[in-house]
Design goal:
Elements: E1 4-8, H1 12-23, E2 27-31, E3 46-49, H2 63-75, E4 84-85, E5 89-92, H3 95-100, E6 113-115, H4 117-124, E7 132-135, E8 139-142, H5 143-151, E9 156-159, E10 164-170, E11 173-178, E12 181-185, E13 187-190, E14 207-217, E15 225-227, E16 231-232, E17 239-243, E18 247-248, H6 257-270, H7 272-275, E19 285-293, E20 300-303, H8 308-311, E21 332-336, H9 342-358, H10 366-372, H11 376-383
Parallel strand pairs: 1-2, 1-13, 2-9, 5-15, 13-21
Antiparallel strand pairs: 3-8, 4-8, 5-7, 6-7, 10-11, 11-12, 14-17, 14-18, 14-19, 15-16, 16-17, 20-21
Helix pairs in contact: 1-9, 2-9
Length: 395
């Protein structure tokens, strides 16, 4: 029976996996190269929790919709509730939202309804010039407190300043090498961002996207979180948070004045009454980080076969997948590629991984596991003929 699990990464993907597994009785060691949790894409001071809605027909099978409801239920329970501020979210109406959501939606008048500009302004405490979708149960997470609470579980040991250098299967267990020595585990969960030196994730495509948020001192009596493509939070610890920029393939995390300007301009387009009251940029602070995305924007979560990429080079592409032998490796799972949605979607990934490791039935529909399957991109490339290497005829 699996007893000890090593989780690599102390952002929301790793911390949620560690907590869910620890809650099921496993001993967990979390390894992270940074000096504190959430030092990468999970480290913005606030994380907005709200759904990206689709039309009524698609909603029952929509990952983000299901993940949002699951996350809300968790955040309303101790010990997490103290880190969640249920401000409600006003999603200012745009052309797409008017098309996708109406009274036929299964959440209508339960999780969401529409307010005209006057009612939305009254709810927000500031003047808005357009109607909005109102999500009364949404809000923001204070990320540092949540991550520390997750990692404080009695079955979790967290080692910071510990960079993982590699891992190999040895006697039915994983032997993980790091800058702090070696660790042995019955199962291994990789929940780090991109740029790792571990070869076990070769073939899993990730794209970095730089994002900068801006913070400035309280300037107006906003009561709810506003979303409009970007977002603006009410004051928390004396500051509003506005964001975020979106710069694919930019690997730098310096704070840029032009990104403050971008965040201000986007806010001004949607909420001009608020933008007029912004303090000067000299009073602003910021944080930039990299969020890692997959080609289809769904995360990769589940069991991963690191040999699959090599094995498939021997099989010519065809419609149906070949029958392959089960790899003789200890359990290896990943939870990566969450992009900007980790604080909402990582919980589903953690549950799927925990169900796989414990070999217990999953409460999630089968299509969710298939949508998140880490190896889906490798199989796709094989079917498109990108992996097969024809053997040369013997002379």
């Amino acid at each position: 029976m699996t007893q000890h699990i090593v989780v690599v990464g102390a952002g929301i993907a790793g911390a949620s996996c560690a907590w869910v597994l620890a809650n099921r009785g496993y001993r967990i060691t979390v390894l992270d190269a940074a000096s504190k949790p959430g030092s990468g894409g999970s480290g913005n001071p606030l994380a907005i929790v709200y759904p990206k809605l689709v039309n009524a027909e698609l909603t029952p099978n929509h990952l983000q919709s299901l993940a949002y409801l699951h996350t809300l239920a968790l955040l309303q329970q101790p010990p997490f509730a103290e880190h969640f501020q249920q401000t409600g979210v006003l999603w200012l109406d745009q052309e797409r939202s008017l098309q996708d959501v109406d009274a036929s939606h299964p959440w209508w008048q339960k999780q969401v309804w529409r307010l005209d500009a006057e009612a939305a302004s009254e709810q927000a405490g500031v003047t808005l010039n357009r109607s909005a979708l109102w999500f009364p149960d949404a809000g923001f997470i204070r990320t540092d407190g949540l991550l520390r609470t997750l990692l404080a579980h009695e079955n979790i040991r967290t080692l910071f300043n510990t960079r993982v250098c590699g891992a190999e299967a040895l006697d039915s267990r994983w032997r993980i090498s790091s800058t702090q020595g070696y660790f042995s585990a019955d199962a291994l969960v990789l929940a780090y961002a991109g740029g790792s030196a571990i070869s076990l994730t070769d073939g899993l495509p990730l794209r970095p996207v730089r994002g900068q948020i801006s913070q400035f001192p309280t300037a107006f009596p906003l009561r709810t979180t506003l979303c409009y493509g970007g977002y603006l939070t009410p004051s928390d610890n004396g500051n509003h948070c506005v964001g975020a920029t979106f710069s694919p393939m930019d690997l730098q995390t310096d704070i840029r004045r032009q990104d403050h300007q971008f965040n201000a301009n986007e806010l001004g387009k949607s909420v001009p009454s608020v933008a007029e009251s912004l303090p000067p940029f000299d009073d602003w602070q910021g944080r930039a980080s990299l969020r890692w995305q997959t080609p289809d924007f769904s995360p990769m979560a589940g069991r991963h076969d690191p040999s699959l990429l090599h094995v498939l080079t021997a099989y010519p592409p065809r419609k149906h997948r070949p029958e392959l032998a089960t790899p003789d490796l200890p359990p290896l799972y990943v939870s990566i590629g969450h992009g900007a949605k980790g604080y909402t979607q990582a919980w589903v990934a953690a549950e799927i991984i925990a169900n796989g490791i414990s070999n217990t039935p999953s409460p999630w529909p089968d299509f969710i596991a298939k949508q998140l399957a880490p190896d889906r991109f490798i199989w796709r490339d094989w079917q498109r003929g990108r992996l097969w290497t024809p053997r040369r005829a013997r002379s």
